[in-house]
Every structure is written in structure tokens, then in C-alpha cells.
Amino acid sequence: MDTAAGRLVAVPDGRQAVSTLVALLKFTKDLVVSRRRFVSLLLAVGGTFGWLGFRVSSRERHKSVSSVPPTKRPGTPSDDETAQPESAQHQHSREQKARRRASARFSARLRVILRMCYPSMMCKESINTVLLCLMLVARSALSVVVAITMGHAAGAIVATDWKTFLRQLRRFALIGIPASLVNSGIKYMTSILSLRFQRRLTDRLNKNYVTGVNFYKATELPEFKIDNVDQRVTTDVEQFCEQGCEMFCDVFKPTLDILLNTWQLARDVGAWGPTIMVGYFGLAIAVKVAIMPNFKELVKKRSELVGNYRTAHARLITHAEEIAFYEGGPRERSIIRQRFDAVYWHMRHMATKSAAVGVIDTWIEKYGASIAGYFIMCLPVFFSSTQKSVAQNTNDFIKRRQIMMDLARGMGSLLIVGTQLKMLSGTTARVSEVFESVKQLNERGTSRFEIATEEAPTHDDGGSSGEGRGMVKSESTLFLEEVEFLKKWRAHVEQLRDEGRRHPMARGSSPRSKKTIAGAGKVVVGPVVKFTDVQLVSPDGRHLVKDPLNFTVPHGTNIMLTGPNGCGKSSLFRVLGELWPPYSGVVTKPDQYEMLFVPQKPYLVMGTLRDQLIYPDSKAQMLEKGVSDEDLMQLLGLVDPPGIILDRWTFDTEANWSLTLSGGQKQRVAMARLFYHQPKYAIMDECTSAVSDDITDKIYETCASLGITLFTIAHQHTVIKHHKLILRFDGKGGWALEDVEVEANVV
Known about the structure:
Elements: H1 4-9, H2 14-34, H3 36-67, H4 79-82, H5 88-117, H6 124-158, H7 162-209, H8 214-220, H9 229-269, H10 272-291, H11 295-318, H12 320-326, H13 329-377, H14 379-383, H15 390-443, H16 464-468, H17 480-498, E1 522-525, E2 529-537, E3 543-553, E4 559-562, H18 569-576, E5 584-589, E6 595-598, E7 607-608, H19 609-614, H20 619-624, H21 629-639, H22 644-648, E8 654-655, H23 657-660, H24 663-677, E9 681-685, H25 693-705, E10 709-713, E11 725-729, E12 735-739, H26 740-746
Parallel strand pairs: 1-5, 4-10, 4-11, 6-9, 9-10
Antiparallel strand pairs: 2-3, 2-5, 7-8, 11-12
Helix pairs in contact: 3-13, 5-15, 6-7, 6-9, 6-15, 7-9, 9-11, 9-15, 10-13, 10-15, 11-13, 11-15, 13-15, 21-24
């Protein structure tokens, strides 16, 4: 080993350093001039790849945005109206201020979360972190020892010193034992620390979220609504803990490597070595900062899109029965695919951005750092006043090369930390937002709900509002103009039915009727609804209807179902909808698309107000049928005479309709959907319970005008007059079919 005096001599003076840099610049200039064709080709290829990367990134960003249409709120000005011209200087200043605010907000949020993760100095998380730091220090120290050992081994090989080589090889093998234990221990401690953080944050969230009625407020009340709360509480918290622990190791270990290897490098080649390396990476950091994409917003957007995709699947599970009755599988599949496409193209966009940054990171960390490292390692060789043997030069070269590799790897890791920090800031924002929202649940009370007037005060009955618009009253609750419209609408739907265009899969029998189970009853397609020796058994084995059902419901004969809870009323509807197989007998019914189910709480799809009326059709399918928004307006006007719904929203408005619409408005929308599809039979399960009696009468008369035969479950005695038959279940497996006139006489 060279002495301290020899190491000082190895450092070139200022004039030698300047002459070396001048010679290096001249060499670079001559190389570029002599290889100008190659350099031009290299620039052309680089420019082409850069242009292609920009085009691909722009296309992926556009695809991600266009996959899910933007929400349109009534009264919101267009982009052209809100766009205001501003100078480039003002815009740059505004962006800088926004970045500073975002950085300060991220720091504040991260401190709050870390205080939750480390509640005290002697908590288990603190002890775990100290042990992790000790292991990281041990690994860095072992790396320096390994570098020195490899240098001595290489020098022994060149000097053909067999004993020294074996001694260094034995030393290297012994060092590998604690090094392996330390490396494995670091991975173990990192995973345990991540799990401890996750438990701390999850317990804190659940303590405030799953307490009292907070979870109800967070999911049902618009004032406290937290979007994708399940995604934030589970996946986002897990990602934050994993990213945070990995980033801690990625910062602590490289920083320690830089300090130890810089100290060791300064001992070997003097101050010039660390100065050149630090200057090189300082320039590299400046380049990275200039080209770094906004990964924070990209990560936040990714979590939001993934949450929307999971929500689409969750809604499918929650509303499976309603969707199955509506034959909404294709429409739900298109919604799920739409949201997946948004996730797909956004992830593609992030991958493209990461790949572009990775190219620069790789060149800076490996190739550029290698060039700077070789330049540093040549300083003692070309500018040293002492002569060394070949073996000693080889020893020094291998040792310094290993130290330079560790130093460059550490600086390169810190360079990549900028990208990881951007991604961590996005996850931090998601986790912090849910903590802030949950905190408000305990600190704030629920505001008093505002009264939403269902109908105008001057229009108490279902017809006076039409009279105010100059409409002429007919003998029924319908106006003459509405009667004329219903005639035209029924003729239009009948024409679509004759042409086979009412539903894209309407030709042939229902796809669910093609499969039967051996020994079970059968479902066949016929012109009317007919039950022949049918018994009903629930999936849990309860024999709901023991006496075989034998009756026919001709077209135009409305039938009302009554009986105690759990007697089989809804089960009969599930058999008609082919969700359950009949236990025995034969069920004859029209094609599945000629039956529509209208529940008490209608299913409202994710989309526009138009989508609620035409579900499961899409807008394109609606236009193919020759239906316009004007037709939808008249259909909705039949159940919403004052026009309150269309006064507040347009057909293009998107909202969370389950929370936006009141109970009565939901049922009105569901009935307008029934009129739009105009099936031959409709199953109505308490679907007018939140609607006034006059509107209820109008709904039943509209169904009669459109030729819709009704199966009804209702507790409103006023609807009995709209039915001809009553099917009564006694709750003991028996049933009876009676005339409405008989029921009226009994009453």
C-alpha cells in the first residue's frame, strides 16, 4: 500500500489538470470531426427515437383520457369560454408557485403520516428502523472490505504470489457469510417494517372510519363522499408502506456508500477524484430535473382509474340480480372494458415515460459514470511522481474500480430516487386525502339536508302541469297529446319488433333457455306466460311453493301478487327472469327481451342521464332504433309532468345518480326506461312506492296504452283497480288465483 505522502504526490497540480482537460476537449473535437458521419447518424437516430417517443406518449395520453368521457355538469362553461390568454412569463411563474405549494403540501402530509407510523421513540417501528439502519451500515462497510480484498487478490495474480492469492480468496469467502446474512436480513427487516406501517395506518383509519355511522357517511352522503374508499384503505395504504420502506433503503444505503467510498477514494487519488465525480452527478441531476415528468399526478391518476375499474366490478356484484333481469351484461361489459382501457392506456403512458427516463438514467449511471471513473483512475497513473510495480498498479486499479463502481451505483441510485419520490408523492396524496376526509367525519356534523321539491307547488295533481302548458285533458289521466304520442311510440316499437331491430339479440329464444338441468323443470318460449305443474324451491333448499302452479296470464291481463314475506313472490319473478330454474314443471314465457324487471330501488348505471333511460342500450343503439332525445323527453314527461329532472340536468349530464336522484325521481326514471323498451310483460316490485297516487295511476294507464302486461307486487291499495287477477300465496306452500272483483267484495 502507498503511503500518505505518495497519495498526495499522486494528485496533479492546477496546471497539469488544466492541460489535461484541454487535451481531453481537443481529443473530443478531433473525434467528432473525424467521425462526423457517425455523429450525424447518431443524432438522426436519437432525434427519430425522441420524436417517436413523443408521438407514442401523446397517443397513449389521448387514449387514456378519451376512454372515459369527461363529466359534464349543467351550467359549466366550455373550455373555450374559460380559456384566458396569459403571457408565457406569467404562466411559468404560476407553474413555479404551484410546484412550490405542491412540494410544501407533500412534506406536510408526509410528516403527518410518519408521526402515525412512529407514535413514540421506543415503539416497535423505531426499533425495527434502527436495526435496518445497522444492517445497511454493515453492508456498506462490507462492500468496502470486499473491494480491498478483490484488489489484493488481483495484485497477487499478476505477481504470481500463490500464497497471497489463497489467503485473499479465503478472506473473500469468509466475508461472504456475514454479507449474505446482512443482505437477507435487510430484505426481511424491510418487509416487516412495511407490514408494521400498514398495520398502524390501517388501525388508525379503521378507528375513525369504521366507527359509529362514519362508514355510512363516507359512502352514502354527498357531503362526506370519499371516492373509491375501499381502494384507498387497502391498496393505496399498502403501496405507500411498500414504496416508503423501499425508498428509505434506496436513500440510506446509497448515501452511506457515497460517504464511505468518497472517503476511500480521496485517500487513494486525492480530492480531485470525489470532486470530479460529484460535479458529474450534479450536472446529471440538473438534467434529470429539467426532463423529469410529473410522476406524482400520473400515480394519482393511476390509482383513481384503477379504483374506478374496481368500482365497476363491485357494482356488477352488488346489482347482479337487477342487471341480470335487464339483460344488461353486454352494457356492463362495455362499461368495464371502457374503464379498463383507461387504465391500460394510462399505464402504457406511464411505462413510456418511465422508459424514456430509464434510458437517460442508465447512460448516466453506467456509461457516463464509467467514463468519469476511468478518467479519475488514470490520475495516479499519469500524474504520480512515484513508480509502482505492475502488480501494485493492478491491485490499485481493481480496488479503485470496485470503489468507483459502488460510488457510481450509489449516486445513480440517488438519481433514480427523484423518480421514486414523484411516485411516492402521488401515493402519499391519496393516503393523506382519505385520512383528512375520515378526520372530518368525526370533527364535523352532518349538515341539514335541503328540501328538493319533487313537483311544482302549483301542480299538485299529475295533470294540472300539462294544462298549464296548454295540453288538453282526456277521459283518463293522460292528455290527448300524450295519448297521440303513445300511439306513435307503440307503433314505432312494434315496427322495430317486426324488423327484429328492437334488441340486437332478439331473434330466436333467450340464450339462458337453451340449457336445462336434468330432472329440473323447463323454461320454453311461448306467446304468453303459463305455469304448468311448477314448484318453487330456493337455492338454500326451502320449498316455497309445494302445490304445483297451474295458471295462464294472457296478454293484457295484469296480475297482482300478495302474501307474507318469504312466501315466494320474488322467487316467482326470478323463475320468470330465468335466474332460478323451476324445481319441476314447465314455464312458458315470451323471449327474455320481452320481459322487464322494475325493482323498488332501480339500478342506475354509471353514465349520463340518457343512459339511465335507455339502459341496457347505448346511445349508438338508441340512434339506430330511430329514437331521439325529444322522444326520451316525452317519455320522461309522462312520469315527471313538471319537468323537474330535465330542469336540473340535461341528457348529457354525468353524475352518481344513486346519490343524486331522490327516491321518487329514481322510480320515475325506471318507469320511463320501461316505456322506452316497451316489453310485452313487465315485473313491478314495489316500483311506485315513492310516487304519488295520481302519477301511479298515470303509469298504469301508460302501460295499458303501450300493451304492457304487468306482474305487480305493491302495498298500495289504489293499484288494485289496474289489475284483473290476484295471485295469493299463503306462506305454507299453497296458493290461490282470484278475480279482482272477488277481492273487492271481500274488502
